[in-house]
């Protein structure tokens, strides 16, 4: 069974920084692709950044490029998202998700990911 547990969300001032963590358990092959999503109230989840099992970054959403950094430590089974230069519009619930590689690639769509954490709230104000 795969379990994902996020932490690190907080209230921070504009321009500040946070580091989100996602502790993962379960077979490595079902979490080869890992992704951060965020969700605004009343909106659908949207992709923020993704990463392969080997640590290669798959993508960043344009809105976070140059400000957020995704990484993973496979020895600790943990996914990270470093959030710098935070803006009010980054306020959202952040979720980590895990899924398999398909056709040698990691998907970016919400529907692809089978395993989700409970979310951690980031508030920039």
How does this model look, in words?
This protein has 125 residues and is mainly β. The chain has no helices and 11 strands. It has strands spanning 3-7, 11-12, 18-25, 33-39, 46-51, 57-60, 68-73, 78-83, 92-99, 115-116, 120-124. Strands 2, 4, 5, 6, 9, 10 and 11 form a 7-stranded mixed sheet that branches. Strands 1-3-8-7 form a 4-stranded antiparallel sheet, with no helix packed on it. The protein is globular, with a radius of gyration of 13 Å. The chain starts with a strand and ends with a strand. The mean pLDDT is 95.
Average pLDDT confidence is 95
Structure annotation, total helices: 0
Stretches where pLDDT is under 50 for at least 5 consecutive residues are none
Largest sheet: 7 strands, mixed
What coarse outline follows from CA principal-axis ratios?
globular
Radius of gyration, CA atoms, in whole angstroms: 13 Å
- Report, as a whole number of angstroms, the end-to-end distance: 37 Å
Please provide the count of β strands: 11
Helix fraction by DSSP (H/I, runs of at least 4): under 10%
| Category from helices, strands and their pairing | mainly beta
* Beta-strand percent range: over 45%
Write the H/E string, N to C.
Answer: EEEEEEEEEEE
């Amino acid at each position: 069974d795969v379990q994902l547990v996020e932490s690190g969300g907080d209230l921070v001032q504009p321009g500040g920084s946070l580091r989100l963590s996602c502790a993962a358990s379960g077979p490595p092959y079902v979490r080869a692709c890992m992704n951060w999503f965020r969700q605004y109230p009343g909106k659908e989840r949207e992709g923020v950044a993704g990463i392969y099992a080997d640590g290669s970054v798959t993508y960043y959403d344009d809105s976070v490029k140059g400000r957020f950094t995704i990484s993973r430590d496979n020895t600790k089974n943990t996914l990270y998202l470093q959030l710098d230069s935070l803006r009010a519009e980054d306020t959202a619930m952040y979720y980590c998700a895990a899924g398999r590689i398909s056709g040698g690639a990691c998907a970016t769509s919400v529907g692809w990911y089978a395993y989700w954490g409970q979310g951690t709230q980031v508030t920039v104000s």
